[in-house]
Write a structure and sequence with these properties.
This protein is α+β, with helices and mostly antiparallel strands. It contains two helices and four strands, in the order αβββαβ. The protein has helices at about 5-15, 55-70; strands spanning about 20-25, 30-35, 45, 75-79. It has a four-stranded mixed β-sheet. A hairpin with a 7-residue loop joins strand 2 (about 30-35) and strand 3 (about 45). Helix 1 packs parallel to helix 2 (about 55-70). The longest helix is centred in the last third of the chain and has 17 residues, at about 55-70. The chain is globular.
Length: about 80
């Protein structure tokens, strides 16, 4: 069975107006989802350690995107 392509997950984030970027994250965090009232739009930060590892990038991005659909805001980190 074929899985969803990484580009398709980025397309979902774009369609939901979520900013996604690679950043330096603390300790063992691989991703973070932030949706606060004073931000212009929701934000997903992906650890720079994911660059070059598309499988892990796809997994963490999908995980953080899941927070967009299942939480009411705040800061949610994946480690």
């Amino acid at each position: 069975m074929a899985g969803i392509r990484t580009e398709a997950i980025y397309a979902i984030a774009e369609s939901e107006n979520i900013a996604v970027e690679f950043v330096d994250l603390p300790c063992d965090w691989l991703g973070v989802y932030i949706n606060l009232w004073d931000l212009k739009r929701p934000y997903i930060g992906l650890s720079r350690r994911l660059v070059g590892d598309e499988r892990r990038e796809r997994c963490v991005l999908a995980h953080e995107l899941g927070h967009h659909f299942t939480t009411s805001g705040w800061v949610v980190a994946a480690s």
